[in-house]
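Task card 7
Instruction: Convert sequence to structure tokens.
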Amino acid sequence: MLSLSASASAQSDNTVQPQIATEQLHLSINLGAGVITNPLKGGTNIPLVVVPQLAYYAQQWFFDNGRVGFSVKQTQQHNLNIVAELNPESRFFIDWHPSNLFALKNTSSSEAVYQASQDNSPLISIKTTHKRKLALDAGISYSYVLQQQLFSIQALQDMSGVYNGWRAALQWQYYAHFDKLTLKPTLGVNYKSAQLNDYFYGLHGNESPLGEIVVGSSWQPYAKIDARWRLSAANAVRFHVAYYDYSAVDSSPLFERHYSTTAFIGFEHTF
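Output:
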């Protein structure tokens, strides 16, 4: 969620172009306090104390915090990539998921076990459902730079045969520089196919006394803001907060709340 983007450097007073040095390792460590909230019943929040950022860009191939890609077209304004990454939805089920490791980007019983709540409705959680597997997604990502703004779009398909669906995203990001302060507000929306939502958030007939529950496709808006106050060439104070809306899948009884947030504040050291 704070995954390393191409760093923005000012080309003029009004224009920012994303640039990143190639053929070298980009490594930074964030130390501080933060959390990723888990919106699912039975899920645990993920604490953020030490958060690494790791990227390497060759002339065309690159690795960027868990995402592997091949650049098809690169200009100052246009960037077209073929990319592959693990689907992030399983981060709520698996604590060591790369999306949680590079956050500043669950094993359960095979039988349906539940307890009666005070209103006599069955208690369903990720502890009583089947394990959700890791899925590998691959597809196309395109970005367009307009002065201090970055517009991006991507579409990824499940290549591992886990959920046999696809997802897409539209995103806008703005780079603002004020002396030592850098702000990056971000707005976006994720599209998730019915196959994706049904696999991760739906329920099979043997997972719940309510019977099979399907969720269907959804649009998920999100917002982020990332801030750095530069202390030196290698050190900065880092602040990040993100909000993801899951209200479009409220038909799933797995959700305890219909949003997930990420918050972090600490120090960043770049090697």
